[in-house]
Specification:
With 339 residues, the protein is α/β, with parallel strands linked by helices. It has a domain of 233 residues: Rossmann fold (3-Layer(aba) Sandwich), CATH 3.40.50.720. The chain is built from eleven helices and 13 strands. Bound molecules: nicotinamide-adenine-dinucleotide and uridine-5'-diphosphate-4-deoxy-4-fluoro-alpha-D-galactose.
Length: 339
């Protein structure tokens, strides 16, 4: 049994599918602050398997400990967290409270229940403005906003915890830019309000829900002047978690692992690939750089390949096709259509 905090969210729901399909049982613990139970009903439809669900907040120690104990889980995958960079600048305390205190509460609960295998969702944001590309895991760490600082603080807490007790098995996964959706079209990213991230914005423009994409910056030192990112299909990312669990079974440790493809694409390249996959035009205009953005970021995936035997299988065209299928089939995300 795997205990999945934040399992109803975008990456969590895709990971639940892959866990169930790999033969694991799953208990999801989520407060639905940024998701809906409908995603888990869809996970059950895709897999034909049941998901145990406990609605609760990771910052409620007693409820969390009870749920973890009752689940009988042998490992935890910890997705629960707030993730909007701009919001974290405006509401830093909310981010430190939810992400850092929530993780401390989880680690206490794991200690009380004698569960010492943990996979944590970190982010390429902990590399700050990269000094070299591709980014290897030994790249210096820094943060430029409260969201990034919560990830860095949690990583430091996990490294300290392992130093104090080498019986822990901890995988710190640093995600690059997850996009795409399950090929069934049943689950995908369901942003609330105006999307902060590129892919959901592009797909809403292609669907006619928004007028045009603003491309933030055309003067970066990149081949076409727009930002370059390492987009990774969310199903490949999900499979990386299943592989990490298998790795943690074998070895104690506290290891950071990049999950990216190693290939950077520019914002304009992504827009063109999306137009091809969807058959729609994506109108765009250029605007000033977004504060805090970096020119280019892409991973060295070597450690994941070596340690986990994991390689991403999906290219950019599949990422766009799957995002478009989800967008078309679910124009309002998980919210039911009116009337
Ligand atoms: P998401 O918002 O879709 O999922 C997060 C889930 O956690 C949601 O279901 C939410 O309801 C739940 N949650 C939040 N706070 C909670 C709390 N206090 N108690 C219980 N549940 C809580 O986000 P996602 O894109 O699936 O991201 C999952 C994790 O991966 C996050 O930790 C995020 O920071 C990290 N991450 C995401 C990206 C990305 O681009 N999506 C990149 C790097 C890292
Ligand atoms: N962009 C636009 N217009 C938009 C949205 C984005 O031009 O409407 C551009 C950005 O300027 C950037 C690129 O598209 O050049 C990607 O932007 P995203 O917001 O999709 O992704 P980021 O790389 O900025 O950040 C994401 C997550 C962070 C995480 C980081 C690294 O939002 O939480 O990836 O994993 F830390």
């Amino acid at each position: 049994m795997i205990f999945v905090t934040g399992g109803a969210g975008y990456i969590g729901s895709h990971t639940c599918v892959e866990l169930l399909q790999a033969g694991h049982e799953v208990t999801v613990y989520d407060n639905f602050s940024n998701s809906s139970p409908e995603s888990l009903r869809r996970v059950e439809r895709i897999t034909g398997r049941a998901v145990r669900l406990v609605e609760g907040d990771i910052r409620h120690p007693q409820a969390l400990t009870d749920a973890l104990r009752q689940s009988g889980a042998s490992a935890v995958i910890h997705f629960a967290g707030l993730k909007a960079v701009g919001e974290s600048v405006e509401q830093p305390l909310r981010y430190y409270d939810n992400n850092v205190l929530g993780t401390l509460s989880l680690l206490h609960a794991m200690g009380a229940c004698h569960v010492n295998k943990l996979v944590f969702s970190s982010s390429a944001t902990v590399y700050g403005d990269p000094l070299h590309l591709p980014i290897t895991e030994d790249h210096p760490l820094s943060a430029t906003n409260p969201y990034g600082r919560t990830k860095l603080m949690i990583e430091d807490i996990l490294r300290d915890l392992y130093r104090s007790d080498p019986a822990w098995h901890i995988g710190i996964l640093r995600y690059f830019n997850p996009i795409g959706a399950h090929p069934s079209g049943l689950i995908g990213e369901d942003p609330q309000g105006i999307p902060n991230n590129l892919m959901p914005y592009v797909s809403q423009v292609a669907a006619g829900q928004r007028e045009r994409l603003q491309i933030w910056g055309q003067d970066y030192p990149t081949p076409d002047g727009t930002g370059v990112r390492d987009f990774i299909h969310v199903v490949d990312l999900a499979l990386g978690h299943v592989r990490t669990l298998a790795h943690l079974e074998k070895a104690a440790g506290c290891t950071a692992i990049n999950l990216g493809t190693g290939q950077g694409y520019s914002v304009l390249e992504l827009v063109r690939a999306f137009e091809k996959a969807s058959g729609q035009t994506v109108p765009y205009s250029f605007a000033a750089r977004r504060a805090g953005d970096i020119a280019a970021s892409y991973a060295s995936p070597e450690r994941a390949i070596q340690l986990l035997g994991w390689r991403p299988q999906h290219g950019l065209d599949a990422m766009c096709a799957d995002s478009w299928r989800w967008q078309q089939g679910n124009p309002l995300g998980y919210r039911p259509a009116q009337g």
